[in-house]
Inverse folding.
């Protein structure tokens, strides 16, 4: 499916001209494709048709209400990590019973909110958290459904900050201790085991680690199934996507496979690696994909403000900054940068740093990247920005957060207004003394 493509010389999202959107709504501007979100959700769910499963979209990747609502309408569940994310899902029309509540540091207030709302289950990351959940549940006259997040000690993930399944990470409980924790839970009174969960990392671009982690979980899941009557195994998220295309090699016919996962990992490959292992288990399988669903469904449009040539380098200075998209600064994340006006095949190219206006050397989107020459006023698209883009945006340097647009076919709707200057100081005050 081609959701972002050049048509008549201009980059489009589905049927909508991105230059027109940038002119109408200003830049920086996030634009999302509904068709791509739906397609990714359906393809993932379809690839696992042989399993009783529920795809719980990881809200942290992109929590805009309109994106959540799209997924509600597809029948998705949600993986949440805070009271705020649960609130968003409920506001978007989602059901608490379809939400798994993850995260190492849930507060008692969050636990109470989630219990009252009736979440599907709590993914528990430590024994002290389990005790806290039990205590809150008993105080509310409830029994909280839980699953232990198991740390299977498998190395995976695109960057050390997003690898979570090794024993030295803060996540989960060591696989060797898990059976004991389930046994102890029975004595707490306020909790009831319903499943077991794992997640090994993010932006994983090969099937091997997923299969290895599932294999490690199977004996444990079998044991828990008989001893504790659990109903589900969640195999987490982490499916990697393609961030790089052939544009870097000077080709313009590059966007055609942007909606596929990472080149080395197809959805079919993922499903082929895990589904046969899980088929005979007799448990419902939950998944928690974030990036796969929304990553390549979004772009960040930004306008070139200035060009600057120094003896050492060429800089293209754009109006988006690290506060709008922090992935390059934080994880050395790669985002393709594409002029919205299609460059001619023989267009002049240059090697430049693409940088933002924030007062930090880390405020760059590309360094030493070969790109078609752009001029002040041109709009460029930072591709694959739908996951962990706006969701990680901040007001650093007192920069208002960008607007977000959702496209569906020929339609485009503002799904979050650009912040105003007044928004920047909302809630602040100067003491009277
Ligand atoms: N489940 C759990 C328990 C997680 O911690 C995460 C992501 C997911 C599911 C979803 O993972 P995904 O399918 O999106 O890979 N900000 C980083 C990524 C951080 C991922 C955190 N956990 C980035 O921009 O690359």
């Amino acid at each position: 499916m081609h959701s972002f493509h050049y048509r008549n010389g201009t980059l489009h999202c589905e049927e909508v001209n991105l230059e027109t959107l940038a002119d109408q709504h200003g830049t920086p501007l996030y634009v999302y494709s509904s068709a791509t979100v739906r397609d990714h959700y359906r393809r993932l769910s379809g690839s696992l048709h042989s399993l009783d499963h529920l795809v719980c979209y990881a809200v942290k990747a992109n929590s805009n209400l309109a994106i959540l609502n799209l997924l509600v309408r597809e029948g998705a569940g949600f993986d949440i990590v805070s009271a705020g994310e649960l609130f968003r899902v409920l506001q978007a029309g989602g059901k608490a019973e379809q939400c798994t509540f993850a995260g190492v540091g849930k507060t008692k207030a969050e636990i109470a909110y989630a219990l009252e709302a009736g979440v599907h289950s709590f993914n528990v990351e430590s024994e002290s958290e389990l005790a806290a959940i039990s205590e809150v549940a008993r105080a509310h006259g409830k029994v909280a459904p839980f699953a232990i997040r198991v740390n299977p000690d498998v190395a995976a993930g695109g960057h050390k900050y997003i690898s979570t399944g090794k024993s030295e990470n803060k996540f989960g409980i060591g696989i060797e201790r898990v059976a004991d924790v389930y046994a102890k839970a029975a004595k707490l009174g306020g909790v009831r085991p319903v499943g077991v969960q794992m997640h090994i990392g993010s932006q994983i671009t090969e099937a091997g680690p997923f299969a290895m982690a599932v294999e490690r979980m199977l004996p444990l899941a079998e044991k828990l199934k008989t001893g504790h009557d659990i109903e589900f195994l969640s195999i987490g998220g982490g499916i990697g996507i393609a961030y790089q295309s052939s544009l870097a090699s000077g080709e313009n016919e590059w966007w055609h496979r942007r909606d596929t996962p990472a080149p080395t990992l197809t959805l079919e490959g993922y499903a082929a690696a895990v589904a046969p292992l899980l088929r005979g288990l007799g448990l419902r399988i939950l998944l928690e994909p974030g990036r796969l669903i929304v990553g390549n469904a979004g772009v960040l449009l930004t306008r070139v403000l200035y060009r600057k040539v120094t003896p050492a380098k060429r800089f293209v200075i754009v109006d988006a900054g690290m506060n709008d998209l922090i992935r390059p600064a934080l994880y050395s994340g790669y985002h393709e940068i594409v002029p919205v006006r299609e460059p001619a095949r023989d267009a002049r190219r240059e090697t430049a740093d693409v940088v933002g206006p924030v007062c930090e050397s880390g405020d760059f989107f590309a360094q030493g990247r070969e790109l078609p020459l752009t001029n002040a006023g041109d709009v460029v698209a930072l591709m694959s920005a739908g996951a962990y883009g706006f969701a990680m945006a901040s007001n650093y340097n007192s920069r208002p957060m960008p607007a977000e647009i959702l496209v569906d076919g020929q339609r485009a709707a503002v799904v979050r207004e650009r912040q105003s200057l007044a928004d920047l100081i909302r809630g602040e005050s100067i003491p009277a003394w």
